[in-house]
Amino acid sequence: MAVGPSIDELHFATEPSVDEVPGPNSRTLLKRQREIDSNAVAYPRRVPVALEEARGATIRDVDGNTFLDFFAGIGVLNVGHSNPYVLEGTQEQLESIAHTIDFPTEARVDLIEKLRTIAPGGLAGSSNVVFGGPSGSDAIEGSIKLAKHNTGRHGILGFEGAYHGTTAGALSLTAGKKYKEGYGPLLADAVHVPYPTRNAGAGDRNACERCLDAVKRKFEAPYGGHETPAGIWVEPIQGEGGVVVPPEGFLQGLRDIADDNDAMLIVDEIQTGLGRTGEWFATDHFDVTPDAITMAKALGGTGLPIGAMLYHEDFDTWGPGGHVGTFRGNAPAMVGGLRAIEYIESHDLLSHATTLGQYLRDRLDEVAETTPELVDVRGKGLFVGAEFVDADGDPDADLVEAIQTRCYENGLLVWNAGRHGNVLRLIPPLVLTREQAEVGMDILCNAIRASATEGTN
């Protein structure tokens, strides 16, 4: 018997309902926020609405406008907003005990056991889990420590286009200069090499080999310019970099290089994990076993903060306090993660994400046939990217912003990505229904055509 309600029962509505956006109540709250909140606030600058409540794949603002959510809190809400099955468990745990540091609780042990079961490749049944601070950045920090501790080396290797977080070690691996300016020096032993993007020929075997050769040189070339890395950090599908799916053989090539050089392969599944791509982890698409994977975002089940790293038990060599964090025992979030996994299993959402994601990409491919500005559609499952350029073939972030604006004005929330901000990123909850997908894609496709036409006039 399926746990919780069906995905059809989770939402406010099948289609959006909007009047004026932003409405008067949203404008009031946005003004109050601007007066007292940090200048670091980003999302309301692009989508100026104030939120009140959410269910499933729908969000309602303070003026009563209802939106379809193709954003899911940057991939946090894989089983939807306020999933009743998840909320029931987290509320019960909250009323029992919430803050447990790392004392054993059923919530903690049950979640670890479940993660060991669904872990990719050879990590299944042979892995341990460490919780630290409640964020993906902290999970990356823990992985840096683990790799250095196990190899005795200090160099770390990441990729151009990568995003791994904004704490000091994670920011050293993050490639975006905009995140780093004014905050150096960071870890001086970090190096970045090319990731096989569309422009480098993502489907071109030679491009894959060139990128792998750049990695190999950092390990084996006597004049490679950097200390031999302790590990390789990679997103199996780059998220902030533009939903970039690497060619076949890329992750296996990294695995081979790590093995040949006694280094660790750490795969960042913070955005791609827990069913987002139609598999439990995006790594599963490539049939590669990493040494460690980092998790956060959807791991909390209903938006509760939690970060973790799962790694092969052979690397569990640190002692008590090897990686810590005051909030490493967020028991309600642990229950939320376990219940989210159970809900995904019970409602066959991996298959649903695969099928529905293909539908989203097919609709975008149809638009691309008559819209030369849309040059690439890519992704796995409900992790979809659409890349746009201008008449000269240059990245067109302005067009993406215009599409986003048209979308939210018509009740659809989408976000951007890409090295130049010229990629639309679709990451709806896995509980999005087929009917909602059709309505949302009608809005999006119309927005693309109208914005592209407007831009050529």
From TrEMBL:
- Keyword Chloroplast in the entry? The reply is no
Essential cofactor(s): pyridoxal 5'-phosphate
Task: Give the Gene Ontology MF terms in alphabetical order.
Answer: identical protein binding; pyridoxal phosphate binding; transaminase activity
- Keyword annotations from UniProtKB, A to Z: Aminotransferase, Pyridoxal phosphate, Transferase
Q: Which InterPro entries match?
A: Aminotrans_3, Aminotrans_3_PPA_site, Class-III_PLP-dep_AT, PyrdxlP-dep_Trfase, PyrdxlP-dep_Trfase_major, PyrdxlP-dep_Trfase_small
**Gene3D superfamilies assigned to the protein according to its UniProt record, in alphabetical order:** Aspartate Aminotransferase, domain 1, Type I PLP-dependent aspartate aminotransferase-like (Major domain)
- Give the UniProt family note: Belongs to the class-III pyridoxal-phosphate-dependent aminotransferase family.
Task: Give the protein's recorded name.
Answer: Aminotransferase class III
The record lists the lineage as: Archaea, Methanobacteriati, Methanobacteriota, Stenosarchaea group, Halobacteria
